[in-house]
UniProtKB/TrEMBL annotation, chain B:
It holds the Pfam family Peripla_BP_6. This is Ethanolamine utilization protein EutJ. Residues 30-378 form the Leucine-binding protein domain. CDD domains: PBP1_ABC_ligand_binding-like. Keywords: Signal. PANTHER family: LEUCINE-SPECIFIC-BINDING PROTEIN, PERIPLASMIC BINDING PROTEIN OF ABC TRANSPORTER FOR NATURAL AMINO ACIDS. InterPro entries: BCAA_transport (IPR051010), Leu-bd (IPR028081), Peripla_BP_I (IPR028082). Belongs to the leucine-binding protein family. It comes from Alcanivorax profundi. Residues 1-27 form the signal peptide. The keyword Signal applies.
Amino acid sequence: MQDHANSVAASQYRGGIALDLFLQQVLNGLTLGSIYGLVALGLTLVYGILHVPNFAHGALYMVGAYVSYITMVDFGANYWIAMIASAISVAVLAVLCERLVFNPLREAPPIHDKIAAIGIMLFLEAMVQMKFGAEFRRMPTPYTDILDVAGMTIPAQRVLIIIGAFALMAVLHLFLKKTMTGSTIVAMAQNREGAFLVGIDANRVAMMTFAISGVLAAVGATLFAPINLVYPAMGHLLIMKAFVIIILGGMGSIPGAIVGGLIIGFAEAFGGFYISTDYKDIIAFALLVLILSVKPTGLFTKGVR
Amino acid sequence: MSKGTLKRFCRLACASAIALAATGAQAAETLNIGFTGPLSGGAALYGQNTLEGLQMAAEEINSSGGFQVDGETYEINVVSLDDKYAPSQAAVNGKRLVQQYNAPVIFTPHSGGTFALQAFNERDGFVVMSYTSVPTVTEKGNELTVRIPPTFTGYMKPFTKIAMAQNGKKVAIANATHDYAKYWTKAFVPTWEAMGGTVVADNPMDYNKSADFYTGVSKVLAEKPDVMFIGGASEPTALVAKQARELGFKGGFVIMDQAKMGEMAKIIGGYKMLEGSVGVVPLTLYEEPGAKAFVAKYHQQNDGKDPTTEVAYNYFALYSVVQAMQEAGTVEDATAIRAAMGQALKNLAPENNPYGVTEIDANGGMQADPNIATVKDGKVVLQRISEVLAD
C-alpha cells in the first residue's frame, strides 16, 4: 500500500512524464494488437471454411518463425527474403494440411476436424523439437535502431511490426473486396450452399484460404520473432489470444479479428501498466465476458454458424 | 551356416571368451544406485540433465574398474525411474528402488520428491540425495538426507551488497511468477530492506506466458529504480533486461540464480546490456582447476557442448557417495554412509568436485562457496560469496 501511495504521489507532480508513459502504452498496445490481429485473421478466415477453429494455426506460426530463422541464420539471407521464403513454405504446408487432412474429413462431424487440428499441432511441434531441440533461439533483424520520439522509446522493429501488419491487413481487405477470387472466399464463408449454387469451386477456395492463413501466420511470426524468442512452443502464446479475439470479434468476421486484436492488445498494455502486469490476462478475459454478455455473438457477426 | 557367418561367430566367441576372462578375474559386484525424477513431460530436459551427471560419473567409475570397499570391488548401475515431477510417483519409485533393487542411495532432483521419500527413508534405510536449493528439505531434521546444491538464500546478502554499492538503494521487483521466483522474492525483499534499501515497485511478470515485456518493464521503470530484480529462465530474462535498456534503464540488475549470465549474453549479444549487474555464471567461466578439468572432460566427451549446472552437481554427488562408502567401509549401511559424507568431501579429487564443495552441515546441507559474477565495463568479474561478504 505504501508503495502504491508513493507512486500516485510521484505521478501527480510528473504530469509530463505521465503523458510519455501513456503514449508508450499506446505504442505497446498497437504492437501487440497488430500481431494478435494478424494471427487472428488467419484463424478467422479458415474458420469460414472449416467451421471449427484451426488449433494448428499457432503451430504454423511457429514453423514460419523457424523457416525465417533458418533462412537468415543458416543461409545468410536478407530479412525480407527470409520473410518471403517463410510465407511460401508455410502457405504450402497449410495447403498440404487442407489436402491431406481436412479435405478428406469434410463429410465427417466437426469434432473430427478439431481432433485432426490438434493432431497437426502436436505433430508439427514434435517435429520441430526433434529436429532443432527445445532451446530458445533469437532471430536477428537488420532493424535494430531505437528511435526516441518525444520521450517515447520506439525500436524500429516495433514500427515495422505495426506498419507491416496493417499494410498486410489492407492488402487482404482489397483482395477480398475488390477481386473476383477474393469474393469467392467471402461468399464461401457467408453461405456454403449458396456459393456452390453460383458455381464456386469449393476445393480451390479452401486451398486458397489455407494458403492465405499460412502467409499471415508466417509474416506475423517473422515480424514478431525478432523482439521475442523462437522455440517450439512459441505458438501457444498467440493462439490462445487469437481464439479470444475471434470470439470477441465474432467468429469468421474479418473486421472483428482486427478490432478484437487491437482491443486485446490495448487491454493488455493499459491494464498491465495502470492496474497490474500480473492481472493483464485476467483483464483481457474479463473484457471478453463483458462483451459477450452484451453481444453474445461477438462484435461483428455476419450470421456464420 | 555359411562360411562367413561361421567365421564371424568364431570371432565373436573368442572375443567374449577374452572379455569374460578379463572381468572374471575381478568379479565385480553390481551396486544399484536409485534415481527418481522427471524423464518425460515438461521438466524432462531438466530430469535428463541431472541423470546425465550421475551416468557420466558411473561410467567413469566403471570403466576404471569399479571401486573397492572392504576388499570387494563394485561397479555402479544407475537405476532410473520416471516420476513425471509428481511426489506421489516419486514415493512409489522410491519403494521399488529399495525393495526390488536394494538401492542404498536414491537421487531425486526436486523438493516434492525429496519430501515424499523423506516419509520413509529413515525406516527403510536409504540416503536421499536431493538436488534442490529449497532450504526446507534439510531443515526438518531428516537424518538420512543430503542436499546437494547450496540454498538460494546464500545469494541474498552478497547480491544485495554488490547491487547497492554499484547502483543505489531503490530496487524494483520484476522477476517471474513461478514458485521458485516467489520464494526468492520472499527472502530477497527483507534482506534488501534490512540493509537499508527500499522497494519502489513490486511487479512480477509471467516470463513464460507474456508475448512482450514492454508494458511490465515500463510500469516498473516509472518508479525510477536504481536496481531491477529480474529472473526466470535465462532466455526470457535476457529479453526483460534488453527491453529495460531500450526503455532507458541505466541501473543494474540483480539476476535470480535460475538465469545464468552466460546464457543471457548469448541472447542479447554480450555483456554490455548487463553492465552493473550481479548474478551467477555457468561453470564454464569458473577459474578453479577442478571446474576447468571437469569442463574440459565434458567438452571432450560431448563434442564441445557446455555442461549444465545439473550435470556438474550430480556428477559430483555420485562421486561423493562412492567416496563416502569407501570411508565408511560399507555399501549397505545408510547411516554410516551419511556419517562419512563429511570426511568424503575432504578427500574427494578436485576434478570430481567442480564446485569445490568441502563441507556438509549437521542437517545434510552441502556447503559450497559458489562464484558470483558482476559485470564491470562489459567484463565479468568473479568473486566467491565469502570474498564478497568479507570486504
